[in-house]
């Protein structure tokens, strides 16, 4: 039987990375084989593209196309084979991030993104997407506590991140049952409980 595809989304600092390992553990405890991966990245070529995307200034359309180029490679080399084997795939970001960041944040025409999406993954969509939602100010406070250098996206101003957040919420509202909005402005334990309930509901 084909595996399931779960993605995590949210603005930078929303706290999604903190929960990915827990979800993989939960799925493995139910006897499933899990592939945990991320975008942009997830393949040797994709990780090289990630370095460029996160640190090299570029035209907005170049950025969108490189996101989808990395995704094409990721689907062909990792995601599709895993799902076909019956493994479950847990991915830190996927195409919803391109709609939110390049579409909402940077203002790229949605039709161009639809064309790229159609080319790269046709009708394949995640079975479940967890959207970690919280105000930008709260996410920013979390990020500044980390001492690492901020990437090109994290360096963007508040209005950029507010547009990303709105684009995510609009996408969730239009997604039917696929996307679940999680209030991420709560203590970690409460979020973990919500995440586990939602993920368990698709394991049955
Ligand atoms: N619920 C939470 N409350 C407070 N801080 C959190 C919470 N979840 C995560 N953090 C902290 O916020 C920062 C960003 O979390 P992370 O999981 O890396 O976010 P993301 O992957 O969404 O960018 C980390 O330092 C993490 O320890
Ligand atoms: C997948 C994807 C990510 N991004 C951005 C969002 C993030 O700022 C950045 C890297 O994502 P992420 O791995 O979540 O970064 P971090 O672990 O530092 O939180 O790439 C896009 O702009 N478009 C996309 O399609």
TrEMBL record:
This is Thymidylate kinase. InterPro entries: P-loop_NTPase, Thymidylate_kin-like_dom, Thymidylate_kinase. The lineage of its organism: Bacteria, Pseudomonadati, Pseudomonadota, Betaproteobacteria, Rhodocyclales. ATP binds at residues 10-17. GO terms for molecular function: ATP binding; dTMP kinase activity. GO terms for cellular component: cytosol. Keywords: ATP-binding, Coiled coil, Kinase, Nucleotide biosynthesis, Nucleotide-binding, Transferase. CDD domains: TMPK (cd01672). It comes from Azospira restricta.
């Amino acid at each position: 039987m084909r595996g399931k595809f779960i993605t995590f989304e949210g603005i930078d600092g929303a706290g999604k990375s903190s929960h990915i390992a827990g979800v993989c553990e939960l799925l493995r405890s139910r006897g499933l084989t899990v592939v945990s991966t991320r975008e942009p990245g997830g393949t040797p070529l994709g990780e090289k593209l990630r370095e460029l995307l996160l640190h090299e200034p570029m035209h907005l359309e170049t950025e969108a196309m490189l996101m989808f180029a990395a995704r094409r490679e990721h689907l062909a080399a990792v995601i599709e084979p895993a799902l076909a084997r019956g493994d479950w795939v847990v991915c830190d970001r996927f195409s919803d991030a391109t709609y939110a960041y390049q579409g909402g944040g940077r203002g790229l025409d949605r039709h161009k993104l639809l064309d790229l999406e159609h080319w790269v993954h046709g009708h394949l969509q995640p079975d479940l997407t967890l959207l970690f939602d919280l105000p930008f100010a709260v996410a920013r406070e979390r990020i500044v506590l980390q001492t690492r250098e901020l990437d090109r996206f994290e360096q963007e101003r508040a209005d950029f991140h507010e547009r990303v957040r709105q684009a995510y919420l609009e996408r969730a509202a239009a997604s039917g049952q696929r996307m679940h909005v999680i209030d991420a402005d709560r203590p970690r334990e409460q979020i973990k409980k919500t995440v586990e309930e939602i993920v368990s509901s698709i394991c049955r």
